Amino acid sequence: MSNTVRFERQQWLWLAVPFAGLLAVAIALSLFESHLLYRVQLQSLFLNTPLFFRQCMVSSGGLLSWAGAWFTQFFYHPVLGVSLLCLLWALLVVLLMAAFRIPARWAVLTLIPVSMLLLSNVTLGYWIFYLKLRGCFFVATLGTLVAVSLLWCFRLLSSRRILSILFIPLSVACCYPLAGFYALLAAMLIAVISWRIEGFSWRHAILCDILAVASVIAVPQICYEWLYHETPLEGVYLTALPSFFVQGKPYPIYYIPYLVLALSLVLMAASYRRLPEEEHRPLHRRLFWITQTLLPCILVIVTVFFWYKDDNFHRELRMSRAVSQHDWQQVLTISAEPGSEPTRAICLMRHLALFRLGCLGSEMYRYPRGSARPSAPFPVRIVQTEGKMLYMNYGITNFCVRWCIEDGVEYGWSVSILQHLIKCSLLNGEYDAARKYISILKKTRFHRQWCTRYESYVRNPRLMADDQELFPILPLLAADTDYLTSDNADIEQFLLNHFVSTDSRNPVYQELALSAAMQLKNSRLFWPQFYQYTSLHPDSPVPLHYQEAACLFGRLSHEVDTSRMPFDAEVVHRCDEFLAARDQHRGRDYLQEHFGDTYFFDYFYNASAQ
Questions:
Q1: DSSP character string of 434-494
Q2: CA separation for the pair 316, 319 (Å, rounded)
Q3: What is the pLDDT of residue 487?
Q4: What is the pLDDT of residue 1?
Q5: C-alpha closest to that of 419 among 465, 468, 453, 460
Q6: Where do the H-state alpha helices sit in 1-77?
Q7: Other residues' Cβ atoms within 10 Å of the Cβ of residue 54
Q8: Closest to 349 (Cα-Cα) out of 373, 374, 329, 377
Q9: How crowded is residue 505: how many other Cβ atoms within 10 Å of its Cβ?
Q10: Among 189, 395, 406, 581, which has the highest number of CB atoms less than 10 A from its own CB?
Q11: Whole-angstrom distance, CA of residue 344 vs CA of residue 494
């Protein structure tokens, strides 16, 4: 039996390769990116209303954004969202094979565009907080389906010369408002494949190319002049593509998956087989096996290499979700995991968890500390990632609302923003505002039950006393002074200055003020807060780290006589031992090994918050 006949009988095996790859992708996404996908749907919003649809359609490609947002909401259950995404990729594989007449034994080639679509999502990292394109995780997939479908329709009409010629400008004119860039991509693919279709003369192919290029140039310009008013002129050819642009600086490297995707489709069009009988041409056995094994290996290596795997980013996502579930012990467990130096966002969420558990003064220096920069080529601000959640949990609701409004206007409204606005409105007693935001969020698919719970608080605010998230925030609201200022997008510095400068007789709030003075490493700020703390807790022992700070400041500045303060003997002994070791120049490593869990080490060797 010849090799060719054997390959033909095993076609179903080659056809199974891309679908096996999709299964592997689905498993990987579900196992390793569930927290990312859940956060993606929180950063998105889909409302089943005519108004939301009209808002999506204010620029070309709006239908893709609307549909992408609809699919994104299913990431509420990550496995369900991943299943839908992989089903769309499976449909794309089938369309690619049909539109480009790809033989079953070459089905592995369809993994190239699918891999690029996967990379366009899993390389984003912190971009999920800054992208303005609705439904970004699905838009590229849906757009590619549209482009390949239009190409397939053109090929089916190729036997009718007049219809095929008219199809080019009509498809661009009709689909550009709906699919944006991907309608233009379809026109360029048609221009390439017209030279390969059986029965097309070179004159016919040239005419198709002229119409395709003219349509690509003219239709976006016409739509810009007459239809749309929210798309800049330089962006009319790139609508429905994400804008990798932050603080006036572009980051074009993130367009590489989209570029490779377009080039792979162009090459498929250029290598289109004129006749189905070409599928039966004999193929060199060695070339076939090299391609079948080497190409999947290359795609796997490239995908794994460029997959965004930053440990701190994923820890932040997990910690944020634990905060939303009020699982403060889980927040501490995640922050204590071994790994790279933590970011400030991790430290701030851990600080919040320690405060909520009532062990801030005794454990705040027993966890890994650090100030690692987020792994992103652009500046990432905590205030735009976890800042709104931190402001709300510390009772600084005015700044939470401010950043919700600013980010909603700049990057688009999301489930997360609406949830924060609802909680802040309830905490502030603004029940009409809470009712308005709840009525909007109730139009989502998976957050109606959440809204029902908070709607009961609008009808009866006393029920908030039983809410394990909102009730601990209520005592902090009284300490929120009514002043007008700016945080300069530096939430950590703002929180420290806010706590330490607010005069409060609230014992719970006073602990925040004292810990802020310690972190600012300012003895003149520390002593008034320390005396206030001890007066508000007359019958409670002073926590370990507050004793360490008082003992150290007493040794260093001599502004206050600490000799009669009832410090634990162990605290005094370790303070003297630390200062002696430092005077002997024992080195940072030695001091960290023996005193890394004390305020003494933090004061001298960790960066000040000032």
A1: HHHHHHHHTTSSSSHHHHHHHHHHHH-GGGGGG-TTTGGGHHHHTT--------TT-HHHH
A2: 5
A3: 86
A4: 46
A5: 453
A6: 3-9, 11-32, 34-42, 50-56, 62-72
A7: 11
A8: 329
A9: 11
A10: 189
A11: 14
Q: Nearest Cα to 106, choosing from 289, 286, 309, 371?
A: 289
In whole angstroms, give the CA distance from residue 284 to residue 300: 25
- pLDDT of 343 strictly over 70: yes
Q: Which two tokens stand for residue 163?
A: 């219809």
- Neighbour count for residue 474 (Cβ, 10 Å): 13
Contact 454, 426 (CB under 8 A): yes
* Secondary structure of residue 372 in the 3-state scheme: strand
Whether residue 438 contacts residue 421, with contact meaning beta carbons closer than 8 Å, is answered with: no
Please determine, for residue 404, whether its predicted confidence score (pLDDT) is greater than 60. Answer: yes
67 in Cβ contact with 137 (< 8 Å) = no
pLDDT for the residue numbered 482 = 52
Residue type at 249 in one-letter notation: K
Kindly provide the residue ranges of all beta strands, DSSP E only, lying in 323-367, ordered along the sequence: none
Cross-strand partners of 343: 372
Cα(17)–Cα(106) distance, integer angstroms: 10
pLDDT at 507: 85
Spell out the residues 6+ positions from residue 259 whose beta carbon is closer than 8 angstroms to its own: none
Distance CA 531, CA 363 (A): 21
Q: How far is the C-alpha of 575 from the C-alpha of 401, rounded, in Å?
A: 43
Look at residues 533, 490, 526 and name the one whose alpha carbon lies nearest to residue 508.
Answer: 533
Interior/surface letters 352-372, b for 16+ CB within 10 angstroms, e for the rest: bbbbbeebbbbbbbbbbbeeb
Q: Give this prediction's pTM.
A: 0.92
The Cα–Cα gap between 134 and 146 comes to: 17
**Residue 386's closest CA among 453, 315, 470?**
315
Which tokens in the block code for residue 553?
Answer: 């400041």
The pLDDT score that the predictor gives to residue 283 is 52
3-state secondary structure 246-315: ECCEECHHHHHHHHHHHHHHHHHHHCCCCCHHHHHCCCCHHHHHHHHHHHHHHHHHHHHHHCCCCHHHHH
Q: What are phi and psi of 343, to 5 degrees?
A: -80, 170
Residues 6+ apart with CB under 8 A from 283: 3, 4, 7, 105
- pLDDT digit string (tens) for 250-271? 999 999 999 999 999 999 999 8
Q: What is the pLDDT of residues 213-254, one digit of tens each?
A: 999 999 999 999 898 887 888 889 999 999 999 888 999 999
Angstrom distance (rounded) from CA 395 to CA 393: 5
> What does DSSP say about strands 249-250 and 245-246: parallel, antiparallel, or unpaired?
antiparallel
Cα–Cα distance between 530 and 514 in angstroms, integer? Answer: 6
Residue 536 has pLDDT above 80, yes or no: yes
Q: Compute CA 507 distance to the chain's CA centroid, rounded to the nearest angstrom.
A: 37
